[in-house]
Amino acid sequence: MYYNLFCCIFIRSKERDYMEVSSKVLSKSKSNLSSWKVLLPSTLGILLFMVPLFDGEKVTIPVAALSSLFLNLMDNMVSDLLLASMIISSIGMVLFKIGRLNFIKHPGLRSILDPSSFWAGTRLLGTAFSLLTYLHMGPNSIINSNTGGLIFFDLMPTLFAVFLFAGIFLPLLMDFGLLELAGALLSKVMRPLFKLPGRSSIDCIASWLGDGTIGVLLTSKQYEDGFYTEKEAAIIGTTFSAVSITFSLVVIAQVGLSHMFIPFYATVLFTGFVAAVIMPRLSPLKNKSDHYNKPTNNSNPNTVSLSEGWQLALQRANKNADLKKLVSNGFMNVLDMWLGVLPIVMAMGTLALVLAEYTPIFSWLGLPFIPLLKVLQIPEAKLASETIMVGFADMFLPSVLAASIKSELTRFVIACLSVTQLIYMSEVGGLLLGSKIPVSLQELMVIFLQRTLISLPIIACIAHLVF
């Protein structure tokens, strides 16, 4: 009897041990599976958006390379698709507003088709400019190759392609825990320096290596989803939507100083860093609200430990581990940018270039900078002053105007300044206004001036050391 009792106890003990081991193995297996849900998509997102590709002198990222490949394959069809998307956007918006499309219940589509009156008018204007430019009809000031033609045929196809691939793949960066990890790792750096959460570092890197438009898209989506406050979204959008390395190469080549790229880009990085520290502490960015776009549990505290960040990443990945949801989110990103943002970029960019090309307004606005340029001992101060404010219309225009200036030092200063000014209406400015990021045209003008006044003395001092 004792022998049988001992056997029963031994067998049950072994069964408990087996169940405990099985439970631990199963728990570990689930943990490993959750880890892969974070690591695999996030790694793919990093590869697509943040790993540089080198092709001779050209530096790019895979998403931008895919966009270029798409443009080459589609050739002349991109302009047709671009115009079609804007016409669909305007017609759909008008039909929705008069009640013909009330059957649409999807919140994302409703948001795209129901902008405010001001943005509805801007969308219609952008579509009209696109149609006139495409058909080569209407006022030459609107359709020529330096205004509407430049925006529609040179800039917009690139945006169209970038929005396609960035929109599709953006959930890999946003929805699988990478930003939560970045927040845990970098919040102790980003918060005291820039008054931003650590996750904003991803926006900066994506802009720097890829394109400022990708940074705006990422920031806008994070703000809409409740991860950034109004202040944080405005700071990131106007401070970290940096010009890519690739375009910086184009700028320095335009002023005939390609051999100076290393000191040029080092100056841009240092000046941009200083401006990024100062700008959040000035109005209007300082006065932006600390409220989130919508109530959410996603908003991270100011600082979290790495283990807490990993747990947040696991929760985020498990919540979004659905292929159908991933595809749907990517598709809505693309539609939002194609239908909602492209017409606004066309309208704002064309108007800004018309003012730059056909009026002396930017030259007049540059006159007050002549005394400052003389104090900074910049040669050919009057010619240099004419390039300063025109950067608000388009970032490349200052370099075009500077090409005729004899002084290498002055050309160096203008090239650096045009990149660090950051806000230009033909692209980043128009995108910011078309996005959900809470900034107005007047605020962008003030921010542009502030960045100019902060950057110019720094660049001038470095230029005198270099030359």
3D architecture notes:
The chain is an all-alpha fold and 467 residues long. 73% of the residues lie in helices and 1% in strands. Strand 1 (53-55) and strand 2 form a beta hairpin. Helix 3 runs antiparallel to helix 5 (117-135) and helix 7 packs antiparallel against helix 15 (323-358). The chain is globular and about 60 Å long. The chain starts with a helix and ends with a helix.
Structure characteristics:
467 residues, mainly alpha, 2 strands
Lay out the secondary structure.
Elements: H1 2-50, E1 53-55, E2 58-60, H2 62-74, H3 77-97, H4 107-113, H5 117-135, H6 140-143, H7 148-174, H8 178-194, H9 200-209, H10 212-224, H11 230-239, H12 245-254, H13 261-278, H14 306-320, H15 323-358, H16 361-366, H17 369-375, H18 381-388, H19 397-402, H20 408-421, H21 428-434, H22 441-466
Antiparallel strand pairs: 1-2
Query: How many β-strand stretches?
Result: 2
Number of helices: 22
Main sheet summary = 2 strands, antiparallel
Show unreliable segments.
Answer: 21-30
| Structural shape | globular
What is the N-to-C succession of helices and strands? HEEHHHHHHHHHHHHHHHHHHHHH
Residues in β-strands, percent: under 5%
Structural class label: mainly alpha
Alpha carbon gap, first and last residue: 100 Å
What's the helical proportion of residues?
Answer: over 70%
Strand order of the largest sheet: 1-2
Could you tell me the mean pLDDT? 83
In short:
The chain is mainly α and 467 residues long. It contains 22 helices and two strands.
